[in-house]
Amino acid sequence: MRSTRFAASSVLFTCLVLTGCSPPSLGSAGAGASGGGSPAAGPSGAPAQGSSSGRAIAVGAGPQKTYTVQQQPAAGTCHYRYLKGEPIEDPKCTPGAVSPAVTQSNLKSTICRKGGYTSGIRPSTSVTGWEKKLNAASYGFTARMGDAEYDLISLQLGGDPNDYRNLWVEPADPGHKKGSGVNNAKDPVETRLHTAVCKGTVTLAAAQKAIVTNWTTALSRLGLS
Hints:
single chain, disordered N terminus
């Protein structure tokens, strides 16, 4: 999800600031949260999708008519990893979560449909803006928020739109000019995977798994580099 300016509503501000709402420890979520108590199980009891390495990808709540701000892992409990300078999420805090609304059998009517899919399911910035601030505290991110993205398995690959397990503040790439906005190397990787999935050369599950495992090696893992 690309970063844009947002204006938080007074209701959200009251909840998050005046009443002292605070991010919980990893694995818990606030009322109406898309995330469940375990990173490997969906909030509605939906089974997690299996993976070849044994690590399952959680199934989130999927698109909602109204989104609410999701609490995040406790401040300072998440840690960035880096590969050749590129930022990678902490798998304990951000293991990924997929949307149950996107499956291999309905690609043509969801992420591969003409006219686009993601704009109709994306939470408003009044929701994601607060989540990004909370998640920045989780990861200890202090750089300019406008230069950071907020996703793991992207919406165009069937990622859950508002599950805290699928959302992390991704720092800008090495050498990124401060204040120039979002421009991360992960974006073209996601686009190439989306193209491959829609062409049928890669399965949806394989693309999702490759991103969760390590987005910097996703293309090579699937023979697309």
